[in-house]
Amino acid sequence: MDFDSLIGNDEVKNMLSTAVKNNHVLHSYMFIGTKGIGKKLFAKAFAKKILCLKKQDRISCDCKSCVEFDSDNHPDYYEINPEDGIIKIDQIRKMQEKVLEKPIVSDRKVYIINDSDKMTVEAGNCLLKTLEEPPAYLIIILIAENESMILNTIRSRCTKIAFKPIDDDLINQYIKDKYEIPSVSENILKLINGSIGNAINYIDKREMYGEIEKAFSNIEKTNILDVINKLECLYSNKDNIYEVLDYINVLLIKKAKENYRYLNYINKVEETKKRLKANSNYDMCIDNLLFTIWEE
To answer: Alpha-carbon distance 40 to 55, whole Å?
Structure first.
């Protein structure tokens, strides 16, 4: 895990690399950006660079720290992830106990808190104590999508690093190099929205997205039974339905430029999202969406 292997956000790479090189690494950071954009990968690459014993600019390093980091066995590196959808106070307390232990391999310790915007208020207040008086060897990196969900007192003590969406050209090149797939369509790039995570999700489901695009390309001339048959994938992708509905709206927005009636379809998709979030019956929500669009 090195900066050289990461895609996009070159300004962030240069800033973090320079901080390590000049020994100006701060005690607390907050990495902010949309899901799947690479925040955690950047945080881990930054952590590896901080912990490296040689502190040299190189693609690979064989020092004891880097070897142990690459094998997920570094005693001075620690991650916190949500449990049951939240970060609990007990997790922060456990981290604080480990913080008191001095570094074993490196001269620093790095702690990453993933999805830190899912911390409970109690967990946040507990973390604040460490942020106010951190040991000299400690670096904490908070990773989040929605910084407004994090306590102001925590945000004010962290240096914010904002991550930008990755350029479409880089996304296309990544897909081509890694999966040997030709350039993806403009519609798919809008769905991916500059996120490597979304790009990987697309690769796994590209046949489904192709079926959806084909179904909506001629939906005005298709009877309702054919619509339901062609869009059977909507019923079987419950775990990814919001991404699927977002893609449907990408297609509808493009059609709306030629026919304003499609604006009504877009509203129906958004209403379906709200019903699903309110825990309405899943199949009935999809039925209602398809019948309504077809009737329009």
So the answer is: 21
**Is residue 187 in some structural domain?**
no
- Report field, pTM of the whole predicted structure over 0.85: no
Are both 84 and 32 inside the same structural domain? yes
Q: What is the pLDDT of residues 170-179, one digit of tens each?
A: 988 888 888 8
Domain assignment present for 183:
no
Total of domains in the chain:
2
CB 38 within 8 A of CB 163: yes
Each residue of 262-278: pLDDT tens digit?
A: 777 888 888 889 988 88
> Which of 68, 76, 16 has its CA nearest to residue 41?
16
Range of the domain at 215: 205-295
Closest CA to 77 of 100, 61, 98: 98
**Contact present, 154 and 182 (Cβ < 8 Å):** no
Residue for token digits 């945080």?
A: 43
